[in-house]
Amino acid sequence: MLESLIQEWDGEAVIVRRDQPTGSWTFIAIHSTLLGPATGGTRMKSYSDQQAALQDALRLAAGMTYKFAVPGIERGGGKAVISIPKSLDPESRKHLLRRHGKLIRQLGGLFYTGPDVGTSSADMDIIAETGSPYVFCRTVEAGGAGSPAPFTALGVFAGMEVAYKHVFGETSLKHRKVFVQGVGSVGALLVEHLRNAEAEVLFTEVDDRLIQHFRDERDVQFVPLEDAYKTECDVFAPCALGGVINESTIPQLKCHVIAGAANNQLAKPEDGAMLRAKGILYAPDYVINVGGAMASPAIETLGWSHSHAEERVANSVRSALERIFAMADSADISTNEAARRIAEEHLSKSGQPISASPTSFPR
Ligand code: PHE
User: Fold this and answer.
1) What integer pLDDT is reported at residue 324 of this predicted model?
2) Catalytic annotation on 102?
3) Nearest CA to ligand 1 atom 12
């Protein structure tokens, strides 16, 4: 039941909207505004049922709270999930995005959005027609910062090196086997970073067009989905959907490091302890994938340059992971527990929720 999901959740509010013309459901989960206005992507896909969609929104919104809290960014956690029917024609989709933008504008700064799974910068241009100024990552032509994916991929790559070094004592991924699950917007760019670093890259993917492109045109080694979790590798990089690290996949894993871009990689927090017991170093998802959420809003509202943003993302992911790995070792706790403690520390120091009006933010 939707009711019990919300009851068990520790967030602030959920906005539910039924879109009659398309038969879609929208859930905007506001997890925390303690550090600033709730900010998170708009995910658009079809789900098995509305419970699964709401559950995704609730968990992803909490992830955003922690994502901003670890580096101390003055934003809160939120996420929008638009649960669409299996087929949606392009015109109807555009109108749906405009209605989504209108709702965001009506929220008046409670929630800021950007792209996520199933939405692009071009979609942000459409949402912004009705949702401005609460929409990040419009296309560069429309005056936005463009896709956040390059910043996310850069941070994941920098974080992967730190994690690899923590286990093997050296940073270079040259000739190391790195297995990328999902070559969507971020995964594809991560493959480029890895190839430039001369790593041995393997990938799995469900989209036939992407399989063809990377396997046949780019000559990247393809692993069928059914062999994914038992594939031997140095680093496993989940870059697709969430929940892939769970009690049934962990026993199969033959990697030393997990460092990828997907949100909500662990099915449950306890899975982090299972990884630690198995000697696998896990780079917590919301720590390593902060790049886009850190860079794009800062470029648009704080005037960061592209190169400054890259530097900030790489440095901040590196230093956060170093601190987390050291803390996990000294306290003998999982890395996700260490990350949670750091985030909670920042959240508990924040005092009163910050007003979400656009005039008072950003500072
Ligand atoms: N949706 C992405 C994330 O999960 C990135 C993003 C969020 C980009 C908010 C801009 C604004 O972090």
Assistant:
1) 98
2) no
3) 293
